[in-house]
Amino acid sequence: MTILKKVNIFLVLLFSSIFLLVVLLIVGFLLTPTSTPESEWVGNMWSCMGDWMSGSYPNSDPALNLYGILLIVAVIVAILGIGGFAYFFIFPELKTTTTQTPQTGATETPQKASAYNSVLKTLNDDERKVLNVLKEHNGKYLQKYIRHEAKLSRLKTHRVLARFAERGIVTLQKTGNTNEVTLAEWLKD
């Protein structure tokens, strides 16, 4: 499910809950009595207080009880919609794309060289070190040895290689307690 679809789901939740809240507020105003004389209101208050003191509760309108429950549900759905919508803008997912290998032919070497140089320009120093170590070993090497030659920690090496794998620059194959790292074909000479 793409980010846009997830955001659309939360937008639908948000707008539908806001619509439901507006409808419930209108219905609530229609169900509640508009005005009562002061003497009747005071009498009702003393009657309710007397009922509460005796341990019995006055009968209330079931439509108002349903209205209160629906109002609470609508508020919860609105909060979920707002929270979900905000979550997908605060924590966006990484977009993954598939990479295609270039067509083989007479111009293969310049394309690969330019691809390698283009990738190098976008990398930070640690990523460049790892990619250069792989290039020195014909595009295939064990992760534990890459770590030593690039002079990086195990965690840093792992993170760099994970980013590379996500971008399609390398493939990782579990080999014992380490990974065998292979440079993508479109970057090899």
Explained architecture:
The chain is mainly alpha-helical and 189 residues long. The protein folds into two domains: 3-90; 108-187, Arc Repressor Mutant, subunit A (Orthogonal Bundle), CATH 1.10.10. 65% of the residues lie in helices and 8% in strands. The chain is built from seven helices and three strands, in the order H-H-H-H-H-E-H-H-E-E. It has helices at 3-31, 38-53, 62-90, 108-121, 125-136, 143-150, 154-167, and strands at 140-142, 170-175, 178-183. A three-stranded antiparallel beta sheet has the order 1-3-2. The protein is rod-shaped, with a radius of gyration of 33 Å.
Tell me the helix content. Answer: 55-70%
Please count the helical segments.
7
Q: Cα distance, first to last residue?
A: 36 Å
Uncertain residue ranges: 94-99, 104-108
Summarize the main sheet: 3 strands, antiparallel
Topology, number of strands: 3
Question: Overall 3D geometry?
Answer: rod-shaped
Mean pLDDT: 74
Domain tally: 2
| Strand order in space, largest sheet | 1-3-2
**H-E string:** HHHHHEHHEE
Q: In percent terms, what proportion of residues is strand?
A: 5-15%
Cα-based radius of gyration, to the nearest Å: 33 Å
Q: Strand pairing plus helix content: what structural class?
A: mainly alpha
